[in-house]
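Summary of Year 1 activities. Much of the first year was spent building the evaluation harness for sequence design. The harness presents a backbone, in tokenized form, and records the residue chosen at every position. We chose the following record to illustrate the format because it has been used consistently in internal testing since the harness was completed.
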């Protein structure tokens, strides 16, 4: 299980989710290990995940929301 920013995910009417990233990038993405769950709300972690996927953080001006 990996953390993916909302603005790189796309949903269709069938409940499918597509991630706008190369498959190998998603497979190598930082894992959401149970022991790391408390850090998921950490600002630095959020910046890191957005940077990893090349996404602009939602809290920055002029960002695109999913």
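For this record, the design step produced the sequence shown next.
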């Amino acid at each position: 299980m990996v953390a993916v920013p909302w603005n790189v995910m796309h949903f269709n009417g069938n409940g499918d989710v597509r991630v706008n990233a190369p498959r190998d990038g998603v497979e190598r993405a930082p894992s959401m290990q149970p022991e790391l769950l408390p850090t998921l709300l950490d600002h630095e972690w959020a910046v890191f995940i957005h940077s990893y996927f090349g996404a602009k953080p939602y809290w920055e001006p002029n960002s695109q929301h999913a």
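Residues 6-52 form one domain. Quantitative recovery figures across the full test set are reported in Table 2.
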